[in-house]
Automatic annotation (TrEMBL):
<dbReference type="GO" id="GO:0018773">
    <property type="term" value="F:acetylpyruvate hydrolase activity"/>
</dbReference>
<dbReference type="GO" id="GO:0046872">
    <property type="term" value="F:metal ion binding"/>
</dbReference>
<keyword id="KW-0479">Metal-binding</keyword>
<protein>
    <submittedName>
        <fullName>Fumarylpyruvate hydrolase</fullName>
        <ecNumber>3.7.1.20</ecNumber>
    </submittedName>
</protein>
<dbReference type="InterPro" id="IPR011234">
    <property type="entry name" value="Fumarylacetoacetase-like_C"/>
</dbReference>
<keyword id="KW-0670">Pyruvate</keyword>
<dbReference type="InterPro" id="IPR036663">
    <property type="entry name" value="Fumarylacetoacetase_C_sf"/>
</dbReference>
<keyword id="KW-0378">Hydrolase</keyword>
<dbReference type="GO" id="GO:0034545">
    <property type="term" value="F:fumarylpyruvate hydrolase activity"/>
</dbReference>
<dbReference type="Pfam" id="PF01557">
    <property type="entry name" value="FAA_hydrolase"/>
</dbReference>
<feature type="domain" description="Fumarylacetoacetase-like C-terminal">
    <location>
        <begin position="28"/>
        <end position="224"/>
    </location>
</feature>
Amino acid sequence: MNQYVVDAPEIPAIPVQGSDARFPVRRVYCVGRNYVAHVREMGGNEDRDPPLFFQKPADSLVLDGGTIPYPTMTKDFHFEVELVLAMKGGGLNIPQDKALDQIYGYAVGIDMTRRDIQGGGRPWEIAKSFDHSFPCGAIVPASEVGHIQSGRIELTVNGETRQESDVELLIWKIPEIIANLSTYFELMPGDVILTGTPHGVGPVKPGDRIEARVDKLPELHVTVGEPLA
């Protein structure tokens, strides 16, 4: 048995719909600026530029029904609803025609963002990769739901629709995302990939209830809590 000098952290895991088993999270990859309307609202280039990748800590995971503490060092805390891929395979330089074979299932997630400290030449980690920044709903296996190429993606705050689009409007499609990401990192089972957010991103405050949806997938419900400090 391995001996550690401090207690080993628990492995973050996402529930699988209809099963007692859970999906262990190894790494959390994210794709930025992957819907044209969102690129426009952020003032970016609308061309099909190479995908913009970043990561979140695996232990930033917040499950359905959880509370997201309002983070420190921001006064402009934003939501970004996204379709999430859960990987069962991986590798380097995965061909596009083999990419879907690597997917275990799909979920709906939210990329929470400290918008007021994003950009300006600063690293994205402090804006994107903080504690409790990755709410995620239950995973549905691709064997049950098929491979999602279209369908409504939506986010509401206190019952008011803030984001609404269709997954088919992704600039970089799912096979392209996996193939391109695997040229930078060796993908592995347990990795999850957030595929990008549509337009309509905006701020939330303590007490707000966020509901995120993608057609065919379980809804995600989280509440914004008070700051921890």
